[in-house]
Design a protein that fits this description.
Layout lengths: L4 H10 L2 H12 L3 H16 L3 H15 L13 H9 L4 E12 L3 E11 L3 E8 L1 H8 L10 H17 L3 E3 L4 H4 L13 H8 L16
Parallel strand pairs: 1-4
Antiparallel strand pairs: 1-2, 2-3
Length: 215
């Protein structure tokens, strides 16, 4: 089980002021994974704070600051913007792909990727969060029972694929069946999470459930 709110609060208060300020500084910049990295480095070994609890602690700080967090601009899903990004790929685009990802702050979201050849690689086109999807779809769009992020990513991805005359692939409508839970600390912005987990493997730690609620 992960740390409950009271335990997280007590642990946070026990930290030196400078350490708290450092973590909060990253949170205010919306640098989630760097904040998570610092919390992990401080809490994993000496206090046995697992990855799930680390994310909950970071989320507590996001909730504390609310609108003061300098949120990163949301991805643009219109065809012109996506085509412009695709034109900057280093190789020929051979497919457009949508995959589920998630973390405890953003819940489930969808990454839209351009798959290139020569060289082979993935190029990030957009990240579709719940708010991004609602802006793109409009409040009156009827997509029930599918998640807005899935609908928006599929529409935008298919439009880009048609524009480029390449296939479009989407793993499926239900992230819980197709993607790792948000506790896996996946994020399109930085591969730090996977390195963090690999680095902590073999250490006795508690892992809390970090799966966000359905929106």
């Amino acid at each position: 089980m992960g740390m409950n709110e009271a335990a997280r609060t007590e642990w946070w208060k026990s930290l030196l002021t400078g350490i708290r300020d450092e973590i909060d500084g990253y949170v205010l910049q919306d640098s989630l994974l760097i904040a998570v990295k610092v919390i992990t480095e401080i809490g994993l070994v000496p206090h046995d704070i697992g990855v799930g609890s680390v994310q909950l602690i970071a989320n507590d700080r996001y909730l504390h600051y609310g609108d003061r967090v300098a949120r990163r601009p949301e991805s643009l899903l219109d065809l012109d913007s996506l085509a412009c990004r695709a034109a900057g790929c280093g190789g020929r685009v051979v497919a457009v792909e949508a995959i589920w990802n998630g973390d405890i702050v953003h819940d489930w979201f969808v990454r839209v990727l351009a798959i290139s050849a020569g060289p082979v690689g993935e190029v990030h086109m957009a990240t579709v969060h719940w708010s991004t999807a609602k802006r793109y779809l409009g409040e009156d769009d009827d997509h029930h029972p599918r998640r807005p992020a899935a609908v928006a990513a599929e529409r935008a991805g298919r439009a880009l694929a048609a524009h480029l005359s390449v296939p479009f692939r989407f793993a499926g409508p239900d992230p819980r069946r197709r993607a790792p839970a948000p506790a896996a600390l996946n994020d399109d912005r930085c591969p730090l999470a996977s390195r963090l987990l690999r680095a902590s493997s073999g250490v006795n730690r508690r892992t809390g459930s970090a799966c966000g609620p359905a929106r």
